[in-house]
Amino acid sequence: MDDRSRRPVLALVPALIAVLWLPVVAMGLQPQFDSELNEPPLERSVFVGQPIDGDVSRVISMLEGSWKTLAATGDSEGEPAVWMHMLPFETELLGRAIYVEVHADGTPWLPVQQMIFRVYRFGDELRLRTYEFREPERAHVLANLWLAPKHIPLDTIRADELIPTMDLVLERARGGYSGSTPMAYPTGEYAAVERRVSMTIRPDELVSAETLYGVDGQALPSVGTGERRWARAQLPATVEIGEDGLVIIELEPGRTDGPPTDEGDILFINYEGWRTDGVLFDSTLVGGLALRTVYPPRVIGGFRHGIEPMVEGLRRKLIIPPELGYGQAAVQGIPPGSTLIFHIHILKIEQSPAMPMEDRVKRLDRP
């Protein structure tokens, strides 16, 4: 599907966040763990418990937030804008780190990169390390949940699920920090064999640049040589957290000028459902067929309430507490008491002739 087309957009992302994607591991080939515990072993990072000094804290604070690219120079000139969201966190398994999510302007539901950053000390050196997820599918559950930072399940990420990709050595610079990779790193993109990256970090500005080298040792003139500037921005998305614990993140409002959905209308819905540990338990995208159901749909309460009012084009990410999901019942692939996470897109609504169009429109005026 178009929603999974990543490569064209990856070219827009600066080298600091342009790391190689690994093949998706089929669910049937995922590691199996002790069935009695039904959970993976705890793999902690070696950085857990490392002292956090003033420079580390300042860099993390400067990176935190949402960033959007401004006018680019060099070969990046004329490219569409790109967003990057950084959410600092601390867990028992990873210690203090930053969750990073990148997407093209206009498609926040389709991240082109999801990573972990870490700012740490290597001896006397201040470094920023980047990690990619060993299995990209593992990160899909986290998409857009930075908008609800108290509910994003970062505490389930284990150290062995991440692959370190590069380090930047940082030094204090005017108004912030600046640095570059201490060596060239291997790459296979754009016929290049090595890359070097630099970055400047200030409270209200990020500047990143990359140089790619061919097998002859010369810089490639056509790609990766531009400088990219980022400024703080606010993504136009809304978050609603109900008293019942239901979290609704609206990424696209859909059509708001049509008549209300009524009993008997036919809904066509694409959705993906995950456990908080990243296991995908259901998806219409796997089989390529949207869910066809009659309004009101016979689904779990959190799913139904989370997409009301139902309109064509609506896109939402939901975090559904057990009470609005399957409760303490054990469902195939879902343990009792599970919090569920859904990405939902209403593709189309076919109206039933049961209610005349004029009566539907009148309902819009009701208090």
What does this structure look like?
Strand 9 (194-202) and strand 10 form a beta hairpin. The model is unreliable at 1-37 and 360-367 (pLDDT under 50). The longest helix is centred in the first third of the chain and has 10 residues, at 54-63. The chain has 2 domains: 2-232, CpcT/CpeT domain (Lipocalin), CATH 2.40.128; 238-363, Roll (Chitinase A, domain 3), CATH 3.10.50. By secondary structure, it is mainly beta. 10% of the residues lie in helices and 36% in strands.
Name a few traits of the molecule:
mainly beta, Lipocalin, 367 residues, 18 strands, globular, single chain, 2 domains, Chitinase A, domain 3
Could you write a compact summary of the structure shown?
The chain has helices spanning 7-10, 54-63, 136-140, 284-287, 301-306, 357-363; strands at 65-69, 82-91, 95-104, 113-122, 125-133, 162-173, 176-180, 185-186, 194-202, 205-213, 227-232, 238-241, 247-252, 266-275, 280-283, 291-294, 315-320, 340-350. With 367 residues, the chain is mostly beta strands. The strands form two sheets. A ten-stranded antiparallel barrel has the order 1-2-3-4-5-6-7-9-10-11. Strands 12, 13, 14, 15, 16, 17 and 18 form a seven-stranded antiparallel beta sheet that branches.
